[in-house]
Design brief:
The structure is a homodimer. The first copy, chain A, has two domains: 4-194 and 365-452, Aminopeptidase (3-Layer(aba) Sandwich); 196-250 and 296-362, 2-Layer Sandwich (Alpha-Beta Plaits), CATH 3.30.70. By secondary structure, chain A is of the alpha+beta class. Chain A is globular and about 80 Å long. The longest helix of chain A has 20 residues, at 4-23. Chain A contains twelve helices and 18 strands. Strand 11 of chain A pairs antiparallel with strand 11 of chain B, so a sheet runs across the interface.
């Protein structure tokens, strides 16, 4: 790779300026008030793809937020890499925990601090800049397509239809995604599996209006107490999920494979120290990495009801709400799980309340075989720049559309991400180390090289 | 009582105008931003007491919100009635459930609709207008004192000290309180017992910051799930509270007394229909009226944590919170219960989280013996105007300061309230029937008459 390091060093400041122009647009897909920002962010991506060397780039309509599509064809006979990323970001609440403005990127202590610095503006932008390097230095070995969506953080609802509609346009030999993490700055790894996802909102209703907790307390069901009991009952004492049939399709990993995975370096004490916890907590019989890698889980992502403001208002509320999600593993069908939960939770409601479950979104788990040419190209690329063979890992996170790509487009994805656990994606003070950003740009051209050999 | 009905009919519109001037001041004691409104409301009460015929009236300082004090002495040798009420009101959230503005009273369908219409502006103002009638028509049979506080809805924290400091000024033979309900418009009743109260805020902390629910879910404790389990464990399957020692001091009511209380008219089907519920819910072995009257209970008044806004954000939050209250019955010491709960709940926290319990406020239960002269005067007064002997009832609600009066001032209180269960106090669309307001003004002078005979 001719002049690769020099090119990055010479253009580093411009790369950051361009990235920051994306970050400054608060493209929060979960919040309707940011509708205009979604389009603005897509338009900005289109400009940046053209500037990086795409032959054409467009902001294309979907059923929801627009999709940015760009391409450069050098020879139809050569392979095609489809780069996938997303330009939408997570909400930023609670704002008071941010040490800097979420949408005004700051470089400090060797990191970029901002919402989207890693997930996924920072990571997907590395792809654009590696592409630019290959185009500008005449070293692009294949055709490249870019597809950036605006609904990943809310389940990629519209992208499935977009892929169905544009199968021909999206034809490719592999889908390259930078939206995952490495084990540590000096321990490269490639995500060979992702968990799936299912998300519901539940509402428990007691009396038809808020009541005085003295006059009615003890005689009329309190929907918060009932909701708490129903949530508590979703796990047994060993941390297993109690929904009947929930584990039926879970892919059971062999003891040998578990032993291999256990070789990935993991310092439980440092993990606990970083999180400020005395003990980890999860399903009996599995290690911490297994609990997030090969086992499903169920978490309440939000709960609210009654008086949540200042002071000690005594009220017996009419309603209580929760947002509940599960992470699924290979073979679990999210539509089936979604229905299982809804049926179980609604039926579990005692007669004194009514319970409504609204399924929100879901996505399948994904496994990438280590025998794939693309996996091996990514492995060699990371070994070249990091000086160490990357470890295959299973991520606890979900990129539901990756399973969708396989189903709709018939193309496997390779998840070559450069994030770190300390990047606090989805949380206050999201950040992305500059070194990871630059090392990512340096690594990606090698992937192209080895994939096209 | 000379010209009593005529006086009320002639002055009704003015009575309402004056009451509305109190209601329009949003004197929410639980919200710091209403500090100025507390003083404004106290000042307005002072003017109204003077206008009603008090010799003197003052807004007096306390450790917290000011106390309105007024008096009229006709003869030091005669008995003294101390009227107690409160000018503070509950918060109004959730605002979107109100059909009218909470602080702009509207008379519709024979009811006054506003926050404070009943609790306690409407009820305490009946006392002022009955007093005015007796003064203006020369029929006041004894000395009268008024004391209106601004912290009843947050536990009367400053009034205990105020009473200690002003024992001499507050000397009286009975304390008359209109802050309770009757069984029905045609079923007068007198509250012979009140429940006590204990209130805590709890905070459960897992990791030191919000985490990605995919990357950490299943391996790190979710404080919402843990809080739900801890709340669920506060009751057993029979609806008994599980805190060790919680029931130790509960006054056990004899089977005969339970049988007597059971004679009060109560239509369970109508109760359920009014509340829109299929089943009541409470402690095994007790009727609905007993569950609120003679048994303590524990309710979550508020809960919050994680993502509570729009959309399906996947987050494993750092913290979860709840506001938890119990209602106590006679003999239970709220300070003891407060400590029992704190010790139990904090110790119940699993190692994977930390739990902090902050006691908020509390108050003792109260029982008024039916043999008291004041009880009998109230009974005769209500029988005179309602045409039916009132039934003694135990209220599930709490007026903690009433037990405080007995302890500090050595004076018993008589709880002659005219509210109805349908008044929705503490809830959206609080209201007070005009008929109850006017009938209350008509009844109170008879209390004075019979009490002084």
């Amino acid at each position: 790779m001719k002049d690769l390091k020099q090119y990055i060093a010479d253009n580093k400041d411009r790369f950051l300026d361009e990235l920051f122009s994306l970050i400054r647009i608060p493209s929060i897909s979960a919040e309707a008030e940011h509708k205009d920002d979604m389009r603005r962010c897509a338009e900005r991506w289109r400009e940046l793809l053209l500037a990086a060397g795409a032959d054409r780039a467009e902001v294309m309509p979907s059923a929801g937020n627009p999709v940015v599509y760009g391409e450069k064809t050098i020879d139809p006979a050569k392979p095609t890499v489809l780069v996938y990323g997303h330009y939408d970001v997570m909400p930023v609440a609670p704002l008071d925990l941010w040490r800097t403005e979420p949408f005004e990127p700051v470089v400090k202590d060797g990191r970029i601090w901002a919402r989207g610095a890693d997930d996924d503006k920072g990571q997907s932008f590395m792809q654009a800049k590696a592409f630019e390097y290959m185009v500008k230095t005449g070293q692009l070995p294949c055709n490249v397509k870019f597809m950036l969506e605006g609904e990943e953080e809310i389940g990629s609802g519209s992208l499935y239809g977009f892929c169905e509609e544009h199968k021909e346009m999206l034809k490719s030999d592999v889908i390259l995604v930078s939206d995952t993490s490495m084990l540590a700055p000096d321990v490269p790894s490639i995500t060979s599996g992702l968990r799936g996802l299912c998300y519901w909102e539940v509402e428990v209703t007691g009396a038809n209006h808020d009541l005085h907790s003295g006059l009615f307390g003890g005689a009329v069901a309190n929907p918060i107490n009932i909701l708490c009991k129903m949530i508590a009952d979703l796990h047994d004492a060993d941390g297993h999920i109690t929904i009947p049939g929930f584990y039926d399709d879970v892919l059971v990993i062999s003891q040998e494979e578990r032993a291999l995975m256990a070789q990935a370096p993991f310092d439980l004490e440092a993990y606990k120290r970083d999180l400020g916890i005395s003990e980890v907590h999860g399903e009996k019989g599995y290690s911490t990495k297994e609990r997030t890698g090969i086992r499903p889980c169920l978490d309440v992502c939000g709960i609210w009801g009654g008086h949540t403001g200042e002071g000690s208002k005594t009220v017996l509320p009419s309603k209580a709400h929760a947002k509940i999600s599960t992470r699924l593993v290979a073979n679990q069908d999210y539509n089936k799980i979604s229905q299982l939960f809804k049926d179980y939770f609604e039926a579990a409601a005692p007669d004194c309340v009514t319970v409504k479950v609204t399924p929100c979104h879901g996505g399948a788990a994904y496994v990438s075989p280590l025998s794939m040419k693309a996996y091996q190209a990514a492995e060699r690329a990371m070994e070249t720049t990091f000086g160490r063979r990357p470890i295959p890992t299973r991520s606890g996170g979900s990129i539901p559309i990756v399973a969708g790509f396989e189903k709709i487009l018939g193309v496997k994805s390779i998840l070559m991400g450069f994030g770190l656990a300390s990047d606090d994606i989805h949380a206050p003070n999201e950040n992305y180390p500059l070194d990871q950003f630059l090392k990512g740009i340096e690594t990606i051209p090698y992937f192209y090289k080895y994939f096209c050999e």
